[in-house]
Structures are given as structure tokens and as C-alpha cells.
Amino acid sequence: MSTTELLPLGRDVGRSSTEGSLTPPALRASFPKGEELFPSRKDEAWRYADLDALKSVWDALEAPRQIVVPAGEKHWHSLLPTSEPIQVRRAEIIVEPGAELSIFALNTASEYGRYEMDVEVREGANFTFDGANIGGGKATQEIVTVVRHVEPNGTSRQYVRSVLAGKATGSYLGKVAVARHAQKVDGEQSVKAMLLDRGAMANCKPELEIYADDVKCAHGASVGELDPNQLFYAMSRGLDPASAKALLLEGFVLQLWDDVPDKAQREALVEATRAALREVTK
Questions:
Q1: Which is nearest to 78 in space by CA: 10, 28, 161, 19?
Q2: Which residues lie below 8 Å from residue 106, measured CB to CB, with a gap of 6+?
Q3: What's the DSSP call for residue 258?
């Protein structure tokens, strides 16, 4: 069983200014080996992870990709899932002063999927993350982010939606950290999960760590289920139960992809999302 390339930001890339890849070639290093380095549930960032699945690919993992978005440039990227049952994508990102980075990520791994990002936002820079977990069966899917505002006037937006069926687990663990001198920062986290079965579980843990005085930061999290009245209405229009559920859930998730600049990439995310929703509503 193989892993995907770790956060492959060098392909399927859009740029607003010049042609070429989103980032310079990744700075790669061999991941330290050794059982003593394997995470445990005592590590907050791995509290909800499927450690058995992770262990099967641990020795093949590389270090997180080192990514720098140059000052003043505006980049975006979409991350589509692969067919691998275990997918781990990790990156350490620096958004230089005045730069913008938007990431659109769909997580549908059938066993264990994890997006892990450590992002440093510098003066006047902007980082936006739109992500979705969609899983059924016994899948475990995670989005783990740390956004560090280290200089003034930065902004960050994180919007995460989860749709979980069967005994699947979907988690978002996200911290926004604002340094003492990073005034005028504006950060937002919005996390929502929809549970389709009693055995499914959502973990939502947005977190703020603020040392500056003049900031505007907010977070919210909610977990719910489909409205039975809306479901009945959709079925009364001739849809079978699975199709009715999938249609309602499209409105819950597809809005994440509205701002993807490239039409082909946007349609690819939409089609992959629809396919995943059809699968979990069978």
C-alpha cells in the first residue's frame, strides 16, 4: 500500500500573475525513522488519528514539504483525492508579505486521510483554506492546521465541512496563533459537520491563541443531521432516499468550491464531491 505525494502543490496549479508551478521545487528530506518518533494519542495533533493505518505507511512518509509563496504574489491550488485508501499530505508553508494563497482540498480516503498544514502568515498576507471530509464505513479523515500570524495586518480564513456516514470519523483540529506584535490581524474558522448515521463521529476543535490586543478573530463549530422535512420534500418530488440525501448535501459542501478560479479544476472538485456524496448516501 503506497502513499500519495505529500501535498503535491506542484501540479494542477493556477496562478494569477505568471505562468509555471505554484512553488519552487519542494525541499525534501528523509523522514526520521524509529519507533520512538511514531505519534501517540497523547500528541494533540494525532488524538483522533487512525494510528494502525498510519503505522502501515509511516516509514514511507517524507518530511512535510517546505513551501514559500513569494511576496506580493497570488496563488491558488486544488487538492483532489486519489484512489489510495490511505492518504497523508503534509506541508509547512510561508506566505510572504502581501502574498495570497488559497487551497481547496477534498478528503475522501476510504481508510485514513489526513491533510496537515503549518502556515506562517507574514505582514499583509492572506491565507484561505476550504476543505471537506466525506467518508463512510470505518474511514478516519482529518484536517489539522496551525496558522501562525507572526506579523501585522495578515488575514486567514478556514472553512471546513464534513459529511460522515456509517462508523466514519471526521476531525478538524485547527489553531490560529497571533503573535504579540501582530496587530490588526483578522482570522476566521468555520467548522460544520453533518452526521448521516448514529455510528458516525465528528470532532471539531477550532482554537485561538492570541497575544496581540488589536485583532479580529472568530471561530465557530456545529454538528447536525439532515432536516427530515427537507428530506421529505425532496423525496416528494420523485427522488429516492439516497438521491434526496445526496442532493441536500451538495448544498452543504459544494459552496466550498465557488471561488476556485479555474473552471476545469472547479468542475473536477464538484464531480469528485458528488461521487463521494453518492457513495456515503447509498
A1: 10
A2: 79, 80, 81, 131, 132, 134, 269, 272, 273, 276
A3: T
Torsion of CA 136, 137, 139, 142, to 10 degrees: 30
CA distance 274 to 266: 12
Which spans in 35-141 are helix H? 51-57
CB-facing half-sphere around the CA of 248: CA atoms within 13 A: 24
Cα separation, 44 vs 166, in Å, equals 25
Q: Label residue 85 exposed, middle or buried (CB < 10 Å: 0-12, 13-18, 19+).
A: middle
Q: Count of alpha carbons within 13 Å of 260, Cβ hemisphere only?
A: 26
Residues 167-191: tens digit of each pLDDT: 999 999 999 999 999 999 999 999 9
Give me the pLDDT at residue 37, please.
Answer: 79
* Full-model pTM: 0.86
- 29 close to 277: Cβ distance less than 8 angstroms: no
Pairing of strands 13-15, 74-79: antiparallel
CB hemisphere CA count around 216 (13 angstroms):
7
- Which long-range CB contacts under 8 A does 223-228 form with residues at least 24 apart? 223/192, 223/193, 223/194, 223/195, 224/192, 224/193, 224/194, 224/195, 225/194, 225/195, 225/196, 226/194, 226/196
Residue 81: name the closest of 99, 64, 105, 102 by CA: 105
Closest CA to 189 of 170, 214, 217, 152: 217
Reading the block at residue 225, the C-alpha cell is 443531521
